[in-house]
Design brief:
single chain; about 45% helix
Length: about 525
């Protein structure tokens, strides 16, 4: 993964800087530390302050301002045996790179000093760079390494990955990652990467994962049980090895931050269990009809074939471990005895699903945002009967009875059911579910289900798909199998409003709760509540 600095996103950096400045002005971090320190003894406080001071001194050379305006960041990982090798690289000004390197080295030195003889530092020169490795015991799967090459600082779990990165930077090898045909073809099929470039070689990963079986066999001296475990692992991995590669690019278009991906499947993937589970559903051609015009978020997905996965998983288990046949027979008999069959339930839910959040007005005229989920069900009568049976069983359990949990007919929606509980009595939430037109509808607000049904029937305005896509500059290039929309800004503002509301009522509630508490505890609680407006 490669992240690049893009001047087109200057506005976004300004927003982030404002948020950081607000956190500093409100002294949120310092106030939290002060609260924590008040719960300590004086000795614990002195020890904690000494640790913090040591860490501050170690981090002192780190150029915080430079790290907030990085020219480039690179992350890469490589599987070797059962372990991952990882590398991070940052490009800064050469002066900032020196400070960052020194800060990182200070932390390695601290670890070396505190560990005594258990760890050691090793420094070596390589291609004009100085590599410092914190050598861990032999049984450790990694030894962190820090290096700087000009204006680039590198940190890795393994020194050999740092050496390879430095060599690649000088002369990219003919057989390097980006020179692989499938990767270069994917990159050429996408727009120019302005902000980020991410590439993943799925075939390489699955090949390496299969190698874990070889590692297990080698570590066990080819013991029969280990060989069998390794073969089972390879068999399972093969059923999930469908992705050949995927490349994603990020770019900026005005105020739009865009991401496009290009992926390919392995040619033999069509015979795998995962492919059969994911690739059998039909497109969601009518996705907009599910969504009210005033929706604040929505998601429509074509679904997956869970029954296929369940049956395939059982068949796979039987192939790799034939001795489990008696257990599977017992499982089948148990389902027959209670007349509940998992595969039939899963077959009933092998279609699309839709979720949307939108404003609704309740019977008292109050407006609130509610969400509705609809799931395609091919056998609603059977599924409804099973749900009712389950609730009948629950209502006979004393602990459930004590919570006042019951199922009644929904007074405002014919044919729907409402879940009641004492815990919900003082809240506006009324969990409701029911079946209509071959779909299972669920919501915490029956008025939301009614509105969703009206939208589906054409009695309420639905989302205008053409205008919606035009608004975001999205062009559909084929069938839609999954589509979603969210409004993070509105969500964050709603959270801030909720925190403000909590801050207004919390002092009274804290006062009641802390009436019998020691004065120092009550003071801590009040100070903690005082953080809420700053967080908002």
């Amino acid at each position: 993964m490669r992240k690049m600095d893009n001047a087109e996103r200057t506005d976004a950096r300004a927003f982030m800087a404002d948020a950081w400045q607000t956190a500093q002005d409100e002294r949120i971090g310092e106030r939290i530390l002060e609260l924590v320190s008040k719960t300590m003894t004086s000795g614990q406080r002195d020890a904690a302050n000494n640790v913090l001071e040591t860490l501050r001194n170690a981090a002192a050379p780190t150029p915080c301002e430079g790290l907030s305006h990085l020219a480039e960041v690179l992350f890469t990982q490589q599987m070797e045996g059962p372990f991952n090798k990882m590398l991070l690289a940052w490009r800064l000004s050469e002066q900032d790179a020196k400070g960052f390197e020194e800060g990182l080295l200070n932390f390695l030195r601290l670890a070396d000093e505190r560990a005594g003889d258990k760890l050691s530092l090793k420094t070596e020169a390589f291609e004009g760079a100085s590599l410092t490795t914190l050598v861990l015991p032999k049984q450790a799967p990694f030894s962190p390494c820090v290096a700087r090459h000009g204006d680039v600082v590198l940190v890795s779990s393994h020194a050999d990955l740092v050496r390879a990165a430095i060599q690649n930077a000088k002369a990219s090898p003919a057989d390097g990652f980006w020179q692989r045909d499938k990767i270069s073809q994917a990159v050429s099929a996408l727009p120019q990467a302005e902000d980020a470039l991410v590439a993943f070689d799925g075939r390489m990963l699955f090949t390496k994962l299969r190698g874990i079986g070889d590692f297990i066999e080698a570590q066990s001296n080819n013991a029969p049980q280990a060989k069998r475990a390794a073969n089972i692992m390879r068999r399972i991995i093969d059923e999930f090895a469908i992705l050949d590669c995927e490349v994603s690019v990020e770019y900026t278009d005005g105020k739009r931050n865009c991401l496009e991906s290009y992926g390919t499947l392995q040619p033999e993937s069509h015979e795998t269990l995962l492919y059969k589970t994911l690739a059998t559903a039909k497109p969601c051609d009518d996705w907009a009809k599910w969504t009210p015009a005033d929706a604040t978020s929505f998601s429509v997905h074509n679904g997956i074939n869970l029954a296929t996965f369940y049956q395939g998983a059982l068949q796979l288990a039987l192939e790799v471990a034939p001795e489990i046949q008696p257990k599977l027979d017992q499982w089948s008999k148990m389902q027959d005895d209670v007349d509940v069959h998992v595969v039939k339930i899963l077959q009933a839910f092998d279609g699309p699903s839709a979720t949307a959040a939108f404003p609704v007005v309740d019977a008292q005229g109050n407006s609130q945002t509610a969400s509705v989920t609809a799931i395609r069900c091919s056998d609603p009568e059977q599924i409804e009967a099973l749900i009712l049976r389950a609730f009948e069983g629950l209502e006979r359990i004393p602990a459930v009875q004590a919570q006042g949990i019951s199922l009644t007919d929904c007074p405002s929606l014919e044919g729907f059911h409402q879940i009641n509980a004492m815990a919900l009595a003082m809240t506006p939430t009324r969990p409701t579910f029911g079946f209509r037109d071959g779909w299972l509808w669920c919501s915490g607000n029956p008025a939301a289900i009614q509105k969703a049904l009206d939208v589906r029937a054409g009695d309420e305005p639905a989302l205008d798909a053409a205008k919606f896509l035009e608004r975001f500059g999205v062009e559909l290039k084929g069938p839609v199998y999954s589509i979603g929309y969210s409004h993070p800004g509105a969500t964050v503002r709603a959270i801030a409003d909720a925190i403000d509301q909590a801050a207004a009522t919390a002092p009274m509630m804290i006062g009641i709760a802390a009436a019998q508490a020691p004065p120092e505890t009550a003071e801590l609680l009040q100070e903690a509540v005082g953080l809420l407006p700053s967080l908002a």
